[in-house]
Amino acid sequence: MPDFSCRLSDQIHLKTPIILASGISGNSDSLLVRAAKSGAAAVTTKSCTLKYRPGTDNPASSDWGCGLITNLGLTNPGVDSMVYLINAYRQKAAESVVPVIANIYADNPDEFVELTTKIKLAQPDIIEFVLPEYDPGLVAEITAAVRVNAGLIPISVKLSAICSHIGKVARKAQDAGADFITAVNPVPGMVIDAYAAKPFLSQGSGWISGPSLKPIALKCISDIYKEVSIPIIGMGGVSSGLDMAEMILAGASAVGIGSALYYRGYEAFTKILVEFEEFMNSEGYNNLSEICGKIWR
Amino acid sequence: MPDFSCRLSDQIHLKTPIILASGISGNSDSLLVRAAKSGAAAVTTKSCTLKYRPGTDNPASSDWGCGLITNLGLTNPGVDSMVYLINAYRQKAAESVVPVIANIYADNPDEFVELTTKIKLAQPDIIEFVLPEYDPGLVAEITAAVRVNAGLIPISVKLSAICSHIGKVARKAQDAGADFITAVNPVPGMVIDAYAAKPFLSQGSGWISGPSLKPIALKCISDIYKEVSIPIIGMGGVSSGLDMAEMILAGASAVGIGSALYYRGYEAFTKILVEFEEFMNSEGYNNLSEICGKIWR
Amino acid sequence: MEKPFSMEEKKSRVFTVDKVRIENDTTHSLIMKEPMASEPGQFILIWIPGLGEKPFSVAGSNPLMITIADVGKVSGQIDRYQPGDRLWIRGPFGQGYQPYGKDALLVGGGYGASPLLYLAETLIKKGINVHVFLGARSANLLILVDEFEKIPVKLHITTNDGTRGIQGFVTVPLEETIQQLSDVQDACVYACGPKKMLYGIDALCERYGIPRQLSWEAIMRCGMGLCGNCKIEMPDTWEEPVNKPGSKKAWLVCKDGPTSFTK
Amino acid sequence: MEKPFSMEEKKSRVFTVDKVRIENDTTHSLIMKEPMASEPGQFILIWIPGLGEKPFSVAGSNPLMITIADVGKVSGQIDRYQPGDRLWIRGPFGQGYQPYGKDALLVGGGYGASPLLYLAETLIKKGINVHVFLGARSANLLILVDEFEKIPVKLHITTNDGTRGIQGFVTVPLEETIQQLSDVQDACVYACGPKKMLYGIDALCERYGIPRQLSWEAIMRCGMGLCGNCKIEMPDTWEEPVNKPGSKKAWLVCKDGPTSFTK
Ligand SMILES: Cc1cc2nc3c(=O)[nH]c(=O)nc-3n(C[C@H](O)[C@H](O)[C@H](O)COP(=O)(O)OP(=O)(O)OC[C@H]3O[C@@H](n4cnc5c(N)ncnc54)[C@H](O)[C@@H]3O)c2cc1C
Ligand SMILES: Cc1cc2nc3c(=O)[nH]c(=O)nc-3n(C[C@H](O)[C@H](O)[C@H](O)COP(=O)(O)OP(=O)(O)OC[C@H]3O[C@@H](n4cnc5c(N)ncnc54)[C@H](O)[C@@H]3O)c2cc1C
Ligand SMILES: Cc1cc2nc3c(=O)[nH]c(=O)nc-3n(C[C@H](O)[C@H](O)[C@H](O)COP(=O)(O)O)c2cc1C
Ligand SMILES: Cc1cc2nc3c(=O)[nH]c(=O)nc-3n(C[C@H](O)[C@H](O)[C@H](O)COP(=O)(O)O)c2cc1C
Ligand code: FES
Ligand code: FES
C-alpha cells in the first residue's frame, strides 16, 4: 500500500490527503464527527461570521446536471457558538478526532482581526479564511492581519476560481504570511427555469460546485502551484480517486471534497481513497510527494 | 408562430435570434455559407489578428464530459485574408447571405486601431472584438479606439466569463461607445490525464465551453443586463431551445451557439429554433421582447 | 474507473394538477397529470416560483399524487390550486420503505398518513397482509379513510377525542395487533407522523422485538445531504450501520432517510 | 424537452498493446488488449502524451486494432511500440461504412487498406459477397494481403511496377468486376486511400451508376466539427443531403465523414 501520510507543515500531519471542505455539514459537531469517522483526515467548519446568520430561503440549491448550484447565504451560528461547536466536536469525536480547520469570513480587515482573535479560543489546527475581494492590496492586508492575530496557529487563504491572476494573488498571500492556500471556492452562476421565467434559487444566483468545476479548479491550482512554495489544499469537483489524483498531480498537497457527499454520501471519503489507492498501485507510485505537481516535471 | 424577428439596432435586423459564435467554422467562407444555409441568422468569423497565426499542436480540444475544452491558439489567416474571406462568403452565399460579424483580437489599443481600419474594408455588419484584459481603463480606451475607427459600422465588445464585475465593465464599454455586448467567452480550464500525468491539451490549459458553461454565462448576462441599455448577444452552453429561452430571459437579445455544433451538428440551428418555438407556443409568448430580461420583471 | 455518478438533470420539472381531492378541513390531495417513478416513503420538493420550496411525501406515483396539510406559506398556496394549475417538482429523493415480511402494520398520525395509501397498495401487490392504523386528534383531522376502506386492508381508527373510531392513541390497537402476530420477526411496522409518535412507536416495537421502518421529518434546506440542516438524532434502539459510522448522532433526513429501518 | 446530448466522458482512455504484426517495411498493426465498440470506417484519435495526437482508422474492434504507416512524428513513435506499451485513445468518431446491397467491392490504396479487413469481415457476416482490390506502388507497400487470403473474399492485387499481381492501377480490375455485376444498383464500392484515388473511383462509379462509399482523409485539429480544419469539397457527383444544406462545398471529414455515401 502506498504511503498516504500527508505532512502539510511541521505541525500538521494528516493520515491521508482527504479533507472535508468548508460548508458541508460544518455547522454541526456531530456531523463533523461523522465525517471524521467516515474517513476525513481533517474537517473544516462552515464559514463563520461575527454574528449569527440565518441564511437564505429555499430553494437554496440544485443539481443542474453537470454540477451543483448553492446559495445557502452563509448560514452559521456566529463565531462564539462556533468555538463551542469545535470543542464539542473534539469531545464527541474522542479517539476518532482529526484536525479541524476553522473557516472564517468577514467583509473587512478589522472584522477579520476580531474573528481571528475569537476563533483562536477554540485552538483550531488551521484557520482558513475567505476573502471578500481579490484586490491584491486587500489580500495582503487581510492576510497579514490574520497572520499576526492567529499566533502560532497556521493560516490558509481560500481563493475563489473567479479570482483573476490567481497565481499572483496566491503569491501575495504567501508573502503576507499565509501558511497554505486553499483553492478553490466555487464560481458564481445562475440556473433559470424557463417555464417559471425565474431564476431557480431564491437569491437569483449561487455558486457552482461539483464535476463542472473540476477543470476550472485544476487550472487555478496549477497556476497557484507555479507561483508559490507553500502547500495547496486543492478542491473543486473531486468525486473520484482519479479526480483526486489529477488535483494532486496539478499541485495540491491535500484535497478537499464537498459536493462529492451529495453524489456518494459520507462513504465518499473511503470510496475516493480506495480508488486513489488503486490508481497509485497501478501506476507504481509510493507516496504523495512523487505525484504532487508532477504534471510540471 | 411567434415573431422571431430580432432588431438589434436600426441597422441590424436578424430574421431569428440565433447566431453562429466566433471560432466555429469561422476560418472558411464555405463553412460560413453552410451555417447561413443551416439557419444561422448571422455568422461570426474566427477572431483574426494582424498577422497569420498557425495555431497550436494537437490535442487542441476535448469533450471532458460536462462540456468541451479547446485551445486552438487563435488559428487565423490574418486580417487581410479575412477581408477576402468575408467577401468570398458574401459572394458564395448569394441569396442565402446573412449578416456577418467580424471578430478581431489584439493585445493593445494601437493594434486594434490598425485591425479596425483593415477589417472595415470588408464592410462587416458588426465588428466584434475580444479584449486582452478587463482592466476598466483599458476596456474604455480600446472600445473608444475601435468605435472611432469603425465609422458607421456598429461594434460589440466581447467579454469573458472570468471578467470580474462584468456588469460594471460592460457599462464602461457602453459608455465608451459600444453598440452591443457579446458575452461570454469561455472560462480557462485544464483537463489532466492522471495515467499520463500530463495535461491533455498540448498547451496545458484551454477554455471551457458547452453545457458546463451555461449557468456561469447566465449569471454574467443577467449582471450585464442590469447595468447596460444596449443589446446583449448572449452565448455560453446553449444547445437546446430551452437553453436559448433561458438566455433571452436573462437579458440576451440574440443568442450565439458554438459548442452546440459538436453536440448536434449544423442542424443545431434549426433544431434549437424549433424547440424554442415549441417553448414560446406552449407558454403563449408572441415575440422576443416579451421574454427578453423577463426574469427581472 | 467508472464515473461515480450519472450526469442527469435533477432540476424541477413542471407538473400540472389534474384532480383535487379534499381529505379534510385542512388537507387535500393533488393528483397530477404526469407520473413520477418513485417508491412509497420517498419525498419530492415542490417549488412555487417566487414563494418557496418544501418537501412532501410521494402519495402515489402513476400519476404523481401528494397529500398536503395547509399549515403555512407554501402549503397554503398549494391549497388554492385547481385542475390545470402548474407546480414545479423535483425528486424523488431519499430512501423509501422496503417491503419486508408477511405482515405489515402501517401507522399514520395526522397528515402522516399521506404516503401510507401508496405504501399499502404496493405491499398488497407483493402479497403482504396489511393492517392500517390511522390516528388523529379529532375525526375532522383524519385523512384518506375512504380510500383505505376501498382496498383489502384491516383498518383501525383512533381519535384522541373519540369523535371517530376508538378513543385514544394509535399505539393501543397497534400493540394489540402486534400481540396477535404469529411471528413478529416476519412482520414490520411502517410509521409516518410527528417525531413524538415515532419515538413512541419505536419504543413499543423494541419491546416486542418487531422490525420497523419510521419516516422522519425535519426542516430541509439543500435536500442534498450537504448543509446538515435536516440532521436528527436517531433513537437509542437504532443501530448504526457499519458503513455509516457516526450516523447515529447525526442522521440526515434528506439523504439517510426519510425512512429508517430497524430490524 | 429532452437534453440533446448525453453527458458521457469522451476523454482518452489507456489502451495496452497486446500484439504487433508487421504488415510491410513501413506499416504494422497494433492489436490492443482492450476492445472498443466501433464500426468499420470510423476513426479514433491516438494520443502520445507530450508528443501529439493523430487520427487513425479502426482496423478491428474486439480487440481494438489499428494499422499504421510510419510517416512522421506520431506514427513513427507508435512504430516503436511493443507489447505492454500504452497508448491513449479516444473515439470512435465519425460515420462508418454502411453495409449495402449484395455485392461489395472493397478498394484500398496503400495503408488505405487498413479499415478494409475489418469491413470485409463485417460484410461477410451479413452474407454479402466481397471482392477486395488492393493497390500499391510496389509489392513491399501492399498490406494485409495474407490476412485477406485467409477469409472468403475474391482478392485482386495490382502494383504500379508489376512486382506483385496485375501491373497498373486498382481501377482496372475494379472496372472489370463492375462490368460483370448482374445489378450495379444492388452493389456498392467501398474505398479508402489517397484523395486522388478516391476522385478517380468516384468518377468510375458515376459512369457505371454504382453506389459508392468513400473514406476521406484531411488534417484534423479539433475532431469535433468545430474548427473547420478538416473541411474538404466533395466531388460534383455527390449530392447534397437536404438536411445538410451547403455541405457540398464544405464537408467536415471528422463529423460528416470520414465516409461519404453516394447512391
Ligand atoms: C420528508 C418530509 C415529508 C413531508 N411530507 C409532507 C406531506 O406529505 N404533506 C404535508 O402536508 N407536509 C409534509 N411535510 C411538511 C412540509 O414540508 C412543510 O413543512 C409544510 O407544508 C409547511 O410548509 P409551509 O411553507 O406551508 O409552512 P411555513 O410557512 O414554513 O410554516 C408555517 C407554520 O407552520 C408550522 N409548521 C411547519 N411545518 C409544519 C408541520 N409539518 N406540521 C405542523 N406545523 C408545521 C411552522 O412552524 C410555522 O409556524 C413533509 C416534510 C418532510 C421533511
Ligand atoms: C480519418 C483518417 C484516418 C486515418 N487512418 C490512418 C490509418 O489507419 N493508418 C495510418 O497510418 N494513417 C492514418 N491516417 C493518417 C494519420 O492520421 C497521420 O496523418 C499520419 O500517421 C501522419 O502523422 P505523423 O504525426 O506520424 O506525421 P507528421 O509528423 O504529422 O508528418 C510527417 C510527414 O508525413 C507527411 N504525411 C502526413 N500524413 C501523411 C499521410 N497520410 N500519408 C503520407 N504522408 C503523410 C506529412 O506531410 C509530413 O511531411 C488517417 C487520417 C485520417 C484523417
Ligand atoms: C453546500 C455548500 C456550502 C458551502 N459553504 C461554504 C462556506 O461556508 N465557506 C467556504 O469557504 N466554502 C463553502 N463551500 C465551498 C466548498 O468548501 C468548496 O470550496 C467547493 O464546494 C468546491 O468543492 P466541491 O466541488 O468538492 O464541492 C460550500 C460548498 C457547498 C456545496
Ligand atoms: C472551438 C472554439 C473556438 C473558438 N474560437 C473563438 C475565437 O476565435 N474568438 C472568440 O471570440 N471566441 C471563440 N470561441 C468562443 C465562442 O465564440 C463562444 O464564446 C463560447 O464557445 C461559448 O459558447 P458555446 O458554449 O456555445 O460554445 C471559440 C469556441 C470554441 C468552442
Ligand atoms: S437538507 Fe441539507 S443536508 Fe439534508
Ligand atoms: S477537425 Fe475540427 S472540424 Fe473537423
From TrEMBL, chains A, B:
This protein's GO CC annotations: cytoplasm
Named cofactor requirement(s): FMN
Alphabetized GO MF terms: dihydroorotate dehydrogenase activity
InterPro entries per record: Aldolase_TIM, DHO_dehydrogenase, Dihydro_DH_chainA_dom2, Dihydroorotate_DH_1_2, Dihydroorotate_DH_cat
Keyword Oxidoreductase: yes
Pfam families the UniProt entry points to: DHO_dh (PF01180)
Biological processes annotated in GO: 'de novo' pyrimidine nucleobase biosynthetic process; 'de novo' UMP biosynthetic process
Pathway: Pyrimidine metabolism; UMP biosynthesis via de novo pathway
Alphabetized SUPFAM superfamilies for the sequence: FMN-linked oxidoreductases
Organism classification: Bacteria, Bacillati, Chloroflexota, Anaerolineae, Anaerolineales
Keywords of the record: Flavoprotein, FMN, Oxidoreductase, Pyrimidine biosynthesis
Record protein name field: Dihydroorotate dehydrogenase (Subfamily 1) family protein
Domain Dihydroorotate dehydrogenase catalytic: residue ranges: 12-280
UniProtKB/TrEMBL annotation, chains C, D:
Cofactor(s) needed for function: [2Fe-2S] cluster
InterPro entries: 2Fe2S_fd_BS, Cyt_c3_hydrogenase_gsu, Dihydroorotate_DH_ele_sf, Dihydroorotate_DH_Fe-S-bd, FAD-bd_FR_type, FNR_nucleotide-bd, OxRdtase_FAD/NAD-bd, PyrK_electron_transfer
Binding residues for [2Fe-2S] cluster: 222, 227, 230, 254
Family, as annotated: Belongs to the PyrK family.
Pfam families according to UniProt: DHODB_Fe-S_bind, NAD_binding_1
Source species: Flexilinea flocculi
Entry-linked PANTHER family: DIHYDROOROTATE DEHYDROGENASE B (NAD(+)), ELECTRON TRANSFER SUBUNIT, DIHYDROOROTATE DEHYDROGENASE B (NAD(+)), ELECTRON TRANSFER SUBUNIT-RELATED
Keyword 4Fe-4S in record: no
Cofactor note: Binds 1 [2Fe-2S] cluster per subunit.
Protein name: NAD(P)H-flavin reductase
GO biological process: pyrimidine nucleotide biosynthetic process
Annotated ranges, domain FAD-binding FR-type: 10-99
Keywords: 2Fe-2S, Electron transport, FAD, Flavoprotein, Iron, Iron-sulfur, Metal-binding, Transport
Superkingdom, taxonomy of origin: Bacteria
GO MF terms held by the record: 2 iron, 2 sulfur cluster binding; flavin adenine dinucleotide binding; metal ion binding; oxidoreductase activity
